[in-house]
Structure formats: structure tokens, C-alpha cells
Amino acid sequence: MNDSERLWNRLHVPVERGSAQRPHPTVEAARRRATAEPVALDADWLRELCLREGLDDVGFVAVSTPGLEEERDYVLEALPGTRSLIGFCLRTSRDNLQSRSISAANRDVATTQELGHEAARRICLELQRHGVRALYPAAGFPAEIHRFPNRSWVVSHKLVAVAAGLGRMGLHRNVIHPRFGTFITLGTILLDREITAYSQPVASNPCIDCGLCVTTCPVGAIHADGGFDFDACYTHNNHHELSNFAGWVEEVVDSADAADYRRRVTPTETLAIWQSLSFEPQFRAGYCVAVCPAGSDVLGRYLDDPQGHARDVVQPLMRKPEYVYVDPDSAAAEHVRKRFPHKTIRPARQVTVPEPEIDPRPERQ
């Protein structure tokens, strides 16, 4: 082997280094190109792009929009230089979400969220082609779990959606689109450019205050006076996630043997945890969404036949036998005993997650 072969073997590719006298050709070509000053994105062009890629509605807001102050540092950490946000939504299948079959509802939510991710990715790639930096956070999970329980999301899709004119928050704490109602999933795209025209919030709340979400909620988390019990909702609806999942792990560890484990966790619950781990996190009850008649595409059927809506959608969910997870001796447990005695109360073993030790706050920009 000669000296040249020893220096440049087949696993070592020589690099063409530039100098002041002889610049690297790629660098020299890039410097010759005119660097135009970034211009604001045309709102009509951007909206057309978003709809063409499969989104059902979009709105645009500046990152400095009032009401988004708590989002700013997290957004700028994710994409330094963010100037604008695209709030978007995709329609879900109403019949899937209104079904008594929770697997049908979960399947459609997961599918719609992934369609949103795919559309957002295509939009970001097209914007990238035009020299625009763009980033799309996850619609749900995965999240910045190292920041749990403080805040594990990059940006609040609900707050952006409301600011971007995609709807208003209903009594059930879901965003209600003026046309599609609650049958939507939400997402956000971060941009490092201004947009020529920004959206305004919708003038009136599409929520018609029918109270069906209050009636149907199995844990009584939604109150007619506008109150909301987040812990009750989270404990039941997200039972296989986060601190509830950590509680299940501790049940496994604390069990003396298989028989003891079965006394703590039923075989059905073990299978439900397997399903949530193997596929996507499984929500236990999206009943507040299922029964909501708000939105122009949804409301007509309810107004034409409210008794039919109650018979076909509301009552089957209320009659459904199921496990309801609550903290023992809580208001939620009492609510189940009084309103839904045919449903089975299961105590939730949540783990108290301490304040995060690493990176709990975003780096200030």
C-alpha cells in the first residue's frame, strides 16, 4: 500500500477545503446569490396552501397576540425567531365519536390527528422550499414529558385556535368550531415570518348552553355554572396515561404475587393498558364531544329531533356499563354513585409527580 492509499482509503473521503484565495465552490455560489429581505407571507396564498394539503380550516395569529403571552417562550424555544402561528383543524367522523363503541371513537381521533400531522409536514416542507422556517408540534402525544406535571406541550392548540378564529371554548372546555362544532382535532404550525393579514376571534360562542355535556359526563367534571373539575376529568378520561400509568406500575411492584395483582387490577384493565401501550393512548370517555350539538353542520339534526338525539346518542352513553375511575371519597365518586349507579367505580391510583428537576422552564428569548 502506497502513501496515497494509506491516507485516502475507501472509508476516508477527501474534503475540498476552501480558503480566502480559493473559496469552496458551494460557498462561493451561495454568496453570489442575492439575499432578499424576508417578506411577509401572503395570507391568501398561505390559506390556499393549507386547504390544498388537506386541512379543513385555518387561521393566522402573530406570536405577540394578546392571550398567548404564556405560549411565547415555549414557542420561541421550539423555533427561535417565530413570528406567526397557523392554527388549524381537521374534521372528525361524527358517527365514530358518537358511537357507544369507544374503540371507534379513539380510532377516528388518532387517525385524524395523524392526518393533521401529515398535512402540517407537507405544508412545512413547502414553506421550507420558499425559504421559510416552519415547525409543527405534536397534536397530542408525544409531549415534552420531562416537564410534566407543569406543562408538557410546546404550544396550546386550543388557545391558538381561539385566537385564530377557529371557534370558542365551550362549557365542556373543548373548542367549538362555528361550522364543525366539537368534531375536530386541532394543530398549530410555527413560522418565522409575518403574514399579511391575521385572523380575528369569532364574534360569538357557538355553544348553545344545552347542558348535554353536563348531563352526560360520567364523573360530573362539567358544571352548569361554568365550573370545571379538571382532576376528575383527567383521572377518568386519561386513566392509562401519565401519573395514572405510573400508579399502575406501582400496583405491579406492590403486588405479592399474580393473585394479589388480579385483586388490584382486573384482567380487563390489564388488557386495556396493553391496548393503550401497543397503539395510542386510549381516552375512556369523549362523551362531552359526542353529545354536543353546536356548530352549523351539526345543529340542524338536533333542532329537528332533540328526542331522537337523546335516544340515539345521549342515553346510550349514559346507560353504558363501564368502569369509572375516581379518587376515593371525591365529589366525582359521589356523582357516579348518585347519577350512574349501574357504572362500576374503580379507585384510581395516581402517583404524585414531583416538580421536574431538569429543564422545567423554557430558555427566555
Automatic annotation (TrEMBL):
Transmembrane segment boundaries: none
Species this chain originates from: Nocardia huaxiensis
Positions of region (Disordered): 346-365
Name of the protein in question: 4Fe-4S binding protein
Domain 4Fe-4S ferredoxin-type: 198-227
Pfam families recorded: Fer4
InterPro entries on file: 4Fe4S_Fe-S-bd (IPR017896), 4Fe4S_Fe_S_CS (IPR017900)
Keywords tagged on the record: Iron, Iron-sulfur, Metal-binding
Gene Ontology molecular-function annotations: iron-sulfur cluster binding; metal ion binding
